[in-house]
Amino acid sequence: MNKKLFIILIIVLVLIIGGTIAIYFVKIRPQKSINEEIINSDSNFQSSQCFNQDLEFLGYVKPLDKSKIVVSKAGSKIIKDQIIIMFKQEILEQKIRELVQQINAEIVGCTPDINSFQIELKGDPSIDSLESFIDALNKNPDIQVAATNNIAYPN
Predict the structure, then answer these.
(1) pLDDT tens, per residue, the chain with 155 residues
(2) What topology is assigned to 3-150 in CATH?
(3) Which of the 8 DSSP states describes residue 81?
(4) Domain regions of the chain by residue span
(5) What is the C-alpha separation between 116 and 137, in angstroms, rounded?
(6) Whole-model pTM?
């Protein structure tokens, strides 16, 4: 395995572990705070909250739609129309919004502290097109890493 692929694999594993931790703190064991509604409610989330530095919340994860779970070529369960993108820290809101718009998607969740976004693609992408799309995103110099949104818990 070449060094670049190994580094990407490590980053993806870190994202999966980080996503699992975020899901635990945000969805399974939410903290009582003035932002409890933002953390717990799909209807209250707006992507602008990802860029508001005054809010004190860990992040937001769109609730799972079990009908969108598929098995990837690698054998892991993924959400078929979602990608997790971690942008480099210096990338500003406008550039992130432009990229999301260019790829015909919307921000449905985020972890602002690490500049990570849960992106939902419009339409019904195939696994092949999703994976090649992710490969292309990983070549973008503004993106630290892009990966499928894996299901990180049993069932």
Answers:
(1) 577 776 777 777 666 666 666 555 555 444 444 334 344 444 556 666 676 665 555 677 788 888 998 988 888 899 999 999 999 988 888 899 899 999 899 998 888 878 889 999 998 888 888 888 899 999 999 999 999 998 876 55
(2) Alpha-Beta Plaits (3.30.70)
(3) E
(4) 3-150
(5) 14
(6) 0.67
Q: How many CB atoms lie within 10 A of CB 79?
A: 21
Match 């899901």 to its residue by tokens.
23
Distance, in Å, from the CA atom of 64 to the CA atom of 42, rounded to the nearest integer, reads 11
Residue at 114: amino acid letter:
I
H/E element, 111: strand 105-111
Q: Which residue's entry shows tokens 């097109």?
A: 129
- In the block, residue with structure tokens 């129309």: 81
Please choose, from the candidates 58, 30, 130, 119, the residue with its C-alpha nearest in 3D space to the C-alpha of residue 83.
Answer: 119
